[in-house]
Amino acid sequence: MSKTKFNPQMPSETFDYSDYAVLTASQIPATLSADKSLRFDSAEDASVFFARELDYIKANAYDVLYPEFNAVNLFPTTSEVDPGAETITYYSYEKTGMAKIIQNYATDLPRTDVKGKPTTSNIKSLGASYGYSVQEMRASRMAGKSLDVRKGDSAKYAIDRKINEIAWAGDKETGLVGVLSPGNDVPMYTLPMNAAGTSSRWVDKTPKEILADVKSILSFVDKVTLSVEKPDVLALPTDAYNHIEMTPRSEQSDTSIRKWILDNMTQLKDIVKAPELNASSNITPYAEQDVAFLYKDDPNKFSIEIPLPFYQHTIQPEKLEFVIPCESRIAGVIIYYPLSMLIIPGV
Length: 347
Fold this sequence. Notes:
By secondary structure, this protein is an alpha+beta fold. It has a domain at 202-302 and 339-345: hypothetical protein PF0899 fold, CATH 3.30.2320. The chain is built from 9 helices and 13 strands. The strands form 4 sheets. Strands 4, 9, 10 and 11 form a 4-stranded antiparallel β-sheet that branches. The protein has a 4-stranded mixed β-sheet with strand order 6-5-7-13. A 3-stranded mixed β-sheet has the order 1-8-12. Helix 1 (17-25) crosses helix 3 (43-63) and helix 3 packs parallel to helix 6 (149-169). The longest helix is centred in the first third of the chain and has 21 residues, at 43-63. The chain is elongated.
């Protein structure tokens, strides 16, 4: 797919030949070229014009990013599986065995190993489409403007939104796993209540209590994994993030709680905001609770597996319009080391 951008005032010389072939075979360009007000020299000229228009639309849709969909921005993303595959089998690993002091020429060396539990995940297709009517093509040519780019953007937006939801919470119906899906073997940490015994939420805690929580969370992973796993990113819901970003470490300090944590608890490389973790997002499976998520930003620990990123097929004529089918394929989140993560409800 060429990504050359088309400007009606400065026409591009390139276009997608598959789209051009479909346009040429259709009667629509011939009909449009017969309209003298549109100033097409021939049906071929009309086909070239709209092939270039579609090339611009498609390129723009590929390039557009949606920062509000945090999963693909925060988590490792891979496309290692062939798009033709229907399933993917991977292993979740656990290191076993201990070393010991030995004598010279000892033959009873303790055995270490890695236990792997196979998991098979389905790979599912996500689809959307957009299109342009004959009248929209007429209006575009007559006004000297490009076709509405937002239509292509809307198809990509719909697919990216679904990928984001699956990456966070999975999909029960298809069995796709997300980082917060029940039964994905990621451990959970229960936060203590505040001094008043009324709430575990950080907005209801003092800076000292919040710092104690962060220390306890990191210590929990350290103990459970015998210091093997070192998660380095803490994703927080909106209220908790804003609270530690805007609240001073103490009355005698101008340093925020967030900055103090990053400066002094160096295991953490970043503390980020993820509105998907809000109870109000209706994405997390933890009803009526904001959730925090601690993880290691490393594709060897976990990744969102997308065998087929956003793809736009050749246009298809349907009555008095042209439709562009769009597709993606996703296997959900592949979690190799569940203990490299931690789910923290009630933050």
